[in-house]
Amino acid sequence: MPQRARGGPLVLAILDGWGHSDERYGNAIAAAELPNWRRLLDTYPHALLAASGEAVGLPTGVMGNSEVGHINIGSGGVVPQGVVVINESLADGSFAVSETLRRTIARAKAHAGTVHVMGLLSDGNVHSAIAHCFALIDAAAPDVRIAVHPFGDGRDVPPSSMRGYLDALEERLENVGQRGAVATLMGRYYAMDRDRRWDRTERAYRALAEGRADFTAPTAREALEAAYARGETDEFIVPTIVGEARPIRNGDSVIFFNFRPDRARQITLAFTQPGFAAFPVLTYDDLFFATMTRYEEDMTNPILFGPRPQSGTFGEIVAAAGLRQLRLAETEKYAHVTYFFNGGRETVFEREDRILIPSDRKVATYDRAPEMQAEEITTAACEDVRDGLHDLIVMNYANADMVGHTGVMDATISSLETLDVALGRLEHAVLEADGVLAITADHGNAEAKLDKDGKPLTAHTTNPVPFILVSREPHLGPLHDGKLGDVAPTLLPLLGLDVPAAMTGTNLLDSTLPETLLA
Fold this sequence. Notes:
This protein has 519 residues and is an alpha/beta fold. The chain is 33% helix and 15% strand. Strands 12-11-13-1-14-15-2-16 form an 8-stranded mixed beta sheet, with helices on both faces. Strands 3, 4, 5, 6, 7, 8, 9 and 10 form an 8-stranded mixed beta sheet that branches.
């Protein structure tokens, strides 16, 4: 078994949504009082990592996200993402002849049913792509009726940008004629909850499955304008029935075009899981429910694009070496330090332990509790380090991202100042144990919270993220700039482990590297 490079643990702390920008305007990180953070930058070797676009397997210019970031960090290289794979299928024509897509359409046609196309309608490319929605409409249009159920975004794109997306959708549906129509309109807050707030999911389900909702409107545009008049931004549009009710019925087919799993699971389970018990649901004898990708390993519904699980990941190598590892996060980011960090693997590795700190379900949005569970996470990590329980700790702080998504500047600043205190505690504990603390992020967010007109920004950014190595070892440095996929190849040797050939990333402590690898 390879020998450890030091006595203490290696702690990888991922600050979700903590990007880097030299622009001070609208920059919550620049505005916050962060004495520990600034001292860390002044004291220890640090670098910048590309966290968006081609550097993480996304299309050029597309912002990173938590799923993609953790997959790249854990896999030790650039991992082509679902959106890229799907886009390639659109380009080469294989999308339209997908066997699952053909079955979806054929089943509805055979039963004189409807194909329901549902998903997040935006070009954020984080959970979905509007181009995929349009491709599904085009594929189904010649043969069957189409009901579209668009979910408002307002989080990975500007908060009130749905008008443009609806206009584009309506224009696409004009080519279908009377065969296609928008059936419902609702925000992702309801349709895409991932924290078992089943009351939200139920309201989305009632509109989709039963054609029942608090509001109705003659057209999708009127539904949207009514939501805006109620003070709702796209994310929070209350489920609304558009025109004549077109609920999902027996004999129909559904295609959920979100490609990212975490926020698509709950509503999918309500339609597909035998014995679903979170709230009362209809019994479907003949419903064909297909999803763009596999949302969970034990979900058996048809999918259009199969998963590409990664092997030889950071966690797998650590497990194979017989070392002990801990994954630590609150509910909002638990899947990211487990499933996504492990390259899409559901099964726990040997000697891998997990601690889930429940997120606060009493608040609707995290600007109301910007501290989130940072203190509890830090306490758990410090106790683990003190007791010497694990060789590797991979942990996530959700604050900068989840509070940043609210667009509330003061709350985002407060969340960062909470993290600053946490980082000071973590640094002290790790150094006392003669360990190494690696601090990085998965994508940007908190560093850009205002647009040029002073309006709140809620989306991720394409900015690089920081990478800091905290230790008592003077030879750890300098660090060179790189990408998220370079984190694992840089850290594995600190555990006394070899970097496998399958990891295409670079050790950023290599003294032969140029000063910067960032494009």
